[in-house]
Amino acid sequence: MAGDSPSALPVQLVEQPRLQKLKEMFISKFGSAPKFYARAPGRVNLIGEHIDYCGYAVLPMAIEQDILIAVEPVQTQVVQLANINSSYLDFSTSVNNIQINKNKPQWHNYFLCGLKGIQEHFGLNNPTGMNCLLDGTIPPSSGLSSSSALVCCAGLVTLRANGKTLSKVELAEICTKSERYIGTEGGGMDQSISFLAEEGTAKLIEFSPLRATDVRLPSGATFVIANSCVEMNKAATSHYNIRVMECRLATKLLSKSKCLEWRKMLRLHDVQTKLGVSLEEMLTVVEEVLHPEPYSAEEICKCLGISLEELRSQILSQNMQDVSTFKLYQRAKHVYSEAARVLEFQKICSEAPANALQLLGELMKQSHISCREMYECSCPELDRLVDICLQFGAIGSRLTGAGWGGCTVSMVPTDKLNTFLKNVKKAYYQTDGQRLAVENSLFATKPGRGALVFVEA
After folding, report:
1. In 55, 65, 183, 444, which residue has its Cα 20 to 30 A from 264's Cα atom?
2. 189: burial class by Cβ within 10 Å (0-12, 13-18, 19+)?
3. Is 90 a catalytic residue?
4. What CATH number did the domain enclosing 146 receive?
């Protein structure tokens, strides 16, 4: 059940080589054994890109790749973090003085987000110190949510070490909020699927209130993830937060034109709810109200009847002060059409018509075109990878995650999987030695389970 707290599973470490290895490395690092282990998975979003922060449902599934942390609560009020990957430097800090550097999104700052989120939720005055050793198998900056999985795993670790319990939904909501400490204005999909995922099923995740519904994927097809090997770090670039702001500004202009209380409206979903119309009708409203040419800050002020000073202080976030133009029509059009594609995808999965795979593939292709042209969050390598995947037999293919790099997800007939993998490897990876060296560049995946705690049996 989604409401329960994440399970604590007793395991025989000898049967879990990865946990056994982590334990041995922990002992050699800290001189004592871990008391428990926590894991949080990465995710692949099958459809519904850049719409969670606009209030719309998305359709991800958890993947096998994850963040795994071995933990020993300690008497000193210090958190010591180490990573089995030596390119991530050790870090330690007092648990009573958590400083998160937004300007340098280093790995330990994501851990600190989860830690701080739980501490603040419970108002912990004397939080437990911890020794932690981390092992991650999610390729970094690949759009498969390595950073959110780390925030979630850190939240789970802090919860357990301090002897507290929360439901999966509460944990997802706290970790969504706490990831914003690092400056990413995310919407909650990544944290929600990390906690709410169940083996064998994708999930339709809806917000306000947060809930997850099983989506049985059609038989006969396998989802394949391919890494473009172009890294994208949401916290280190402004592309992502600019899109969040453009959606917020589009919300304000659409609300104002329909005589709604635009100052209170934050998300494109709010406009649809207040007007009580369908997503298709919202697309018509976008056509009527917004123009395709970019808006200047001055024009936005004129439409809203406010001063530039008010726009900057009341609406634009701190890091958006220097942005001079905003594409509102394109962003709103993508969000409303993508939100409709998500619901259509879910409907096809539940009704399972004979041509389900073709219909789902078509939605994935449309989603990629919209991400590329309306949301402008693709890049030449992602476009090329999508074309290659479609050329070698994928029924549908699209970028997944924030974009501007990272991965594609493709739906491939299971009987063609091996030839598909061989051909894509040859066409995209073997032409470039650097790409070939990236681990986990191309792999088939199936829906995995959500976050868990392991204790030695």
Report:
1. 183
2. buried
3. no
4. 3.30.230.10
